[in-house]
# Entry
Amino acid sequence: MARELGWPDAPDALPRPVIDSHTHLDVHDRSLHGDQAPDAEALLAWAERAGVPKVVQIGCDVESAEWSVPFARQHPSVAVGVALHPNDAAHIGVRQGRDALEKAWARIDELARDPVVCAVGETGLDYFRTPESEGQAIQHESFRWHIDLARELDKTLVIHDRDSHDDVISVLLDQGAPERVVFHCFSGDADMARVCAEHGWFMSFAGVITFASAEGLREALRTVPDDLLLVETDAPYLTPKPNRGRVNATYLMPWTVRRMAEERGVDVEKLCNDIVANTHRAFGHW
# Structure
């Protein structure tokens, strides 16, 4: 069915189940999907057939969070993270003002208290898409606000970190990291992976590890301890080879998992088992 609808062909299913720790089932990116919005229930069915029966759905702005929570209530295979993405926080703060930013935070706070929400995130810093100093200052404030919310609710903090490694770690340590922290789509080097490991922070890897240019990231992947390793799609983005450049979805994650096993020199079944155990320790059981 996926092929008939223009999606990439499905890879061979994994021998053991894994969990997609970060996806966006609701995102309709016309540059990838065209005019046909994705069918979230179909995506879940395709994922289960590929060996990925559970996902963490990330609502990274108010609208997405408001979609994600009721969807998860109706789909037991879905857990949720909610937050203002750092770029959205900067956009609201700069263009709409302080009142609008505080109103958005208040709605995220309300949604984060729902039992289907296991995480606060994705939050953090992004200096690639927000290079201006005013926007970055708002990102820092929003990041600290989300850290405090995760600590208050005892929920996992999911980090978005783009071109901001040192500052993300500095803010986490200064503000006081929650008990469980996940670096979504880990993009640091091996030295950063060692720092994260020292603090017990989980590191989640996406399809980027299959890219020819990502040898530094693969070195980091080989550095991560077995008990801190997660996998994700960040769908509909970051599609792994051999479908790079096309739309991504959770059912394509076996490409990433098999490459991870190859790079770490482990059996695919063992890696799947480790990832499931780690994901449950990171986000709880659902």
Summary: The radius of gyration is 18 Å. The mean pLDDT is 97.
